Each structure stands twice: as structure tokens, then as C-alpha cells.
Amino acid sequence: MAYHRVAALQFECTRCGQCCIGDASSGVSLSIDEVEAAQRLLGLSKAWFLRRYVRRLSTVRWEIRLQADGRCPFLTDQDRCSIYAVRPAQCRTYPFWPEILESRGSWQGEAGRCEGINRGRTIPVSTIEKKLKQLERL
Question: CB of 19 within 8 A of CB of 133?
Fold first, then answer.
């Protein structure tokens, strides 16, 4: 059973930016709607946005290419997201991903990377379930 169903989980984003840093082989999943929203927000043509920031995975799926140092290209020098208003579902749902909610160990392991885990208010199970459903649609 998923950990969020047996334990009250606390989370409060501290805006540290650590969740926006991975490794160069990682990426952030994007739908076509998310591609278009980000390119419009940034005032870029779709072709330029795709060429500069995105790797195509299939005819309907893309991902943001992380920089060589693992940083998301939309993470500013002040560790703020420059596309926050239209950030992808993968970003909006963190840390409530199935692999993080799998067990107490995986939740606590992610807490070592994210200082907002186990901090702040308890997140209702219904909110976590909605986030999981958003990810299922990806």
C-alpha cells in the first residue's frame, strides 16, 4: 500500500530549487499543451523553444533537456522557476510521485534531497490522490 495511505505526510515547499536539479541524462516530461504554454510565456516561437530546450520522446511526448550540470534551463540564478506559472505537471506534483510514495523508506530518502518534506502542514490524502491522477494522464 502506498505510504500516503498509511501515514500523514507533511510538505511545504521552501523554494530551494533542489527538485529542479537532476543529472544531464534526466528530463522533465512535457505535453504539447505544456510546450505551447511555456513557449508563449517566454515569447519564443514553438520551433525555437523545441530546438533549444526540448528532446522529443514520441509524436506526443517531449521532455525538457536539463543542462550539463543537471539544472533545469528554466531555473534562474536565484533558484526560481522562470516558467512557474505554466510549469509542467511533473513539477506541479512533486514530491507526490508514485516512486516517492512507495514506502516510508522512499519518502524519507527523498527527504534527504528535499528540505520541504516532513515540514509544514499535513497534505490531505485527497490532494495527493489528485496529483497522482495528474501524473497518470502523462
Answer: no
